[in-house]
Amino acid sequence: MGKELEKARDGQLVLRGQQGDRQALNELVDHYHGAVYRLAYRILGSSEDAADVTQSTFLSAFENLHSYRPEFKFFSWIYRIGVNEALDFQRRRQGGECLDESLPDQGPGPELVARHGQLQEQIQAALMRLSDEQRAVVVLRHYSECSYSEIGEILALPEKTVKSRLFEGRRMLAGLLAKEADHAGR
């Protein structure tokens, strides 16, 4: 579906949702649930936390559906809410307990699967060491495949700032992963 058709479809679903049509809201959840979950997972590094944040993102979105402005893409609006919910969740959690920066083991399996799982764990651990601002931009660009302008719209940032944060985030990730590789090679 083209971006204009998707925007029109989303606009119609939001309008119906604002009028109390639960089926329209269910269609929005069905369409965006996976994307919001993946976004939250990459920001938080935990499937359970990502599920909680995904749920709170949609609850917050639907409670504030009256504030949605149709000149913007619903995708950008729900992603902004998702990023904010994930970062708020992480800040609340850091205030009370330490974040576990590792993912569960992938379990026994072929060597290639094990290596891939280990690499994913290293990448996720490195992502968790970035600042919230850098992590959000890296996740939106590389895991959600948003354009610079979409990231700017989602995070309410100028495109120049998006590019700067992305550059710094990539540089930090490369350094952290190189350090991990050096450490593992010893």
TrEMBL record:
Residues 121-173 form the RNA polymerase sigma factor 70 region 4 type domain. One of its GO terms (biological process) is DNA-templated transcription initiation. SUPFAM superfamilies: Sigma2 domain of RNA polymerase sigma factors, Sigma3 and sigma4 domains of RNA polymerase sigma factors. Keywords: Sigma factor, Transcription, Transcription regulation. Residues 28-94 form the RNA polymerase sigma-70 region domain. Belongs to the sigma-70 factor family. ECF subfamily. This is Sigma-70 family RNA polymerase sigma factor.
